[in-house]
Amino acid sequence: MDINRRKVLALGAAGAGLTALGVVRAQPAGAALAGPVTETVYLTGTDADNTVPWDFQVTAGRRSGEWSTIPTPSNWEFHGFGSYNYGGTLVPEEKGNYRHTFTPPASWSGRRIFVVFEAAMTDASVKVNGTSAGPTHQGGFYQFRYDITGLLRLGQSNLLEVTVSKESSNNSINDAERRGDFWNFGGLFRPVTLQAFPAARIDRVAVNAKADGTFTADVALAGVTAAGRVTAQIRKLDGTAVGGSFSASVASGAATVRVSTTASQPALWTAETPNLYQVELTLANGSGTALHSTATRFGFRTIEVRTGDGIYVNGKRIVLKGVNRHTFWPTLGRASSPRLARQAIGLMKDMNMNAVRMSHYPPDTFFLDLCDELGLYVLDELTGWQRRYDENVGAPLVAAMVRRDVNHPSILFWCNGNEGGWNTALDDDYALYDPQQRKVLHPWTTFSGIDTSHYQTYTSTANKAAGNTIFMPTEFLHGLYDGGVGAGLNDYWKVMNGAQRSAGGFIWAFADESVARDDRGGAIDTFGNRAPDGILGPYLEKEASFATVRDIWSPIQLNSPDYYANTFPSAFDGTTKIQNRYTFTNVNQLRFTWQLVKFPNPGAGTGHTVTAERTFTGPDVAPGGTGSLVLGLPADWAGNDALGITATDPTGRVITGWLWRIKKAADYRSRIVVPGSGSVTATENSTGVTMAAGTLRITIGKSNGRLTAVSRDGTAVSLTNGPALSVGTGTFTGLSHFKDGSGWVVQANYTGDLTSVRWRLDSSGWLQMEYRYHRTGNHDYLGVNLDYPESKVRSVTWLGDGPYRVWKNRLRGVTPDVWTKQYNNTATGASGFQYPEFKGYHARTCWARLGTTEGNITMVAAEEGLFLRLFTPAVGPDPQTATAPFPGGNISFLDGIAPIGNKFHGAASVGPESQPNVAAGDYHRSVYFLFSA
């Protein structure tokens, strides 16, 4: 980041009046620069959170022909102008006309003054005081500037006019940018500034700082009319000097100079250790008078692609845990802010990601600044989605991207377009502006020794990861709706993390790119199944895969107790195995906290109560190593319900948490299901047997042995028609009933897969449903169903894994606790947008309390491993293969549930966990019901 652009303040105003501009002479932290600096002022606001109104008119669509004002920077569609368009729909007649008046300081006399556009979408023609500033700029995501020194009236009012054409007059730009698989917008969506340089100046700097401390800076100069010298000083960000100054002579008329030095044992930059420095550079004349000073941030680090081996940073092989991210917000389009960028990066870090791909264009500079500061590896990408720029228009865009972004240590690779949208004639251009000579990728294919192929099946992923070429898919596990991303990731990551030539990969995608349409009352437009691809919702709501990714990609893995059992083995001794998946961080740099907790009973609240806890430093386990985490639990630890552990990284960020149940389902059943001391009676008629306990009536049908009616206090409760096998047959053979202590039993017998159902009503009001069935072979699900009207449901509170629903191939990330959620009918990514979704499969349920208009229905499991199914989720339009089957009925008690596919692959192609359930023979369960007001 250029320090001269780091801390600037804009004061602007629209209309014909004079504008007072705040001129900022930026200084680096801790030290004053030696000479005059570049003075920068904003004509627009600094970002989408801090805008300045400009005069505006759109030529087509909503409010066309009407002069008004618009906040800048912004995309005009979100302020009632023009039309919304997804890729492929071209609107060449839609243009935006901007006008803005400003007064540059009279003190700028003798300086070179540029108007700088961080981006304009898509073609931009610029006039100052009625005169063209230069050729129309083409390309919607790139920084460009005009030297307007000769057009300005210093100390007086000036008029800036900009016409932005939503579509380009160059068809290859439309092909690369406007016909891509993403939303198209128009406008000045990134800031516009004035930059005033001294007449002799440092125009830009390209740094190459390696892990061994060697440092060079290629300095581009302008306006040098006499011999002089460029002097440099490296500093820490607090201003402390690193070594002495170093310099190089400059000849009269020189356009470039290189300065170099070697720093002793610098702190290296990685995504785990984002150590930054800055270099101050001063251009001086022959007598030593400083003419211009500037500073830029950088990091010492070395990137290597070792052919047939892997990707190395500072000599260590890295595995990228990445995501594809569009710059997007539902009410802003591609306009953004540091606040939104920090929020996005924070969520990536919360998911234990260490990398992000800029799909499919270079981002705002502040996003890259934050990647440098917070620690993320970056793939910076030239636009080109399945179509490419022509060489004549693409070459200056490559130059613009690399010149702007070259000093960011976070950038590992340049991407020359996407999925065939690369012009190979541009491959060599990147190195012209990058002294680090970072490799260029062709995302979707093999180039620069790296196979980046997209959306491979599990089998092809395993084969490629075990092959001879570095494998790093730049898109995998497509996140349409609730399929993909987390579903299958556990299997994929076992092969992608474990193979020598696997360099990780990038999930598609970070967030749903869905527009809040102001022309539709704010309704979310997902453009069918094209936009809702995210781990997060449009407003960054956490969908279920968020927790799955966080768990699987945690750099600290605790390998016992077992993730899937989620309960302790009887021989647990207070020690758990630990695996360190960091590349540069020892476990002894982390903090761990354990908590012993107890869960409330149904109706007594949610969450848990902490009974004891301890925080301690992690053991000495080197990166890539394994060891043991000795917890030091108290002697009475087993009397609690669960044990929780959290790990915190050196920055204070919680890496992830684990919570294991100590007590089993049978323990909670004994605690909750308390027998009564009264009696139960029974009556029989031609259709059923009715058991009665107080005001509770339970009727079992004589024709099928199923629950046919429930009433409490004379009011019906609509739970009926079960248990019915979710898969298999059962032929009813007979029914008997009899008194059983303080209860009454109705016994139903069957032939076929369902063998028996035993109903027992206790005088306490608890109804036991005990069933047995037999199945073998492969099945999508296994268990029994009942019916209950969905329209009567209001909420559910349960002790089990949550708060999200699960699939067979997405069981990680959920944790046991007492959770609650209100009924919603969210179709993930398509409608509703309430998370967690209410409906679906819920893992390892011990008890659940369904809140309904007819009262509460409490259900308690007697055995471990129960999946509770609550209704069938809604699905967005055209899910392709991002679907999963559900059994009949709408409340199910299951021993096996279905996996889900993603947009491009059915579940069968996504790995071992995504295969059908293999039925094991005989199954037996008891579920208890209590019906209360």
From TrEMBL:
InterPro entries: Bact_Beta-galactosidase (IPR050347), Beta-gal/glucu_dom_sf (IPR036156), Gal_mutarotase_sf_dom (IPR011013), Galactose-bd-like_sf (IPR008979), GH (IPR017853), GH-type_carb-bd (IPR014718), Glyco_hydro_2 (IPR006101), Glyco_hydro_2_cat (IPR006103). Residues 66-197 form the Glycosyl hydrolases family 2 sugar binding domain. One of its GO terms (cellular component) is beta-galactosidase complex. One of its GO terms (biological process) is lactose catabolic process. It catalyses: Hydrolysis of terminal non-reducing beta-D-galactose residues in beta-D-galactosides. Keywords: Glycosidase, Hydrolase. Residues 305-515 form the Glycoside hydrolase family 2 catalytic domain. Residues 201-301 form the Glycoside hydrolase family 2 immunoglobulin-like beta-sandwich domain. SUPFAM superfamilies: (Trans)glycosidases, beta-Galactosidase/glucuronidase domain, Galactose mutarotase-like, Galactose-binding domain-like. It holds the Pfam family Glyco_hydro_2_N. Its EC number is 3.2.1.23. Belongs to the glycosyl hydrolase 2 family. This is beta-galactosidase.
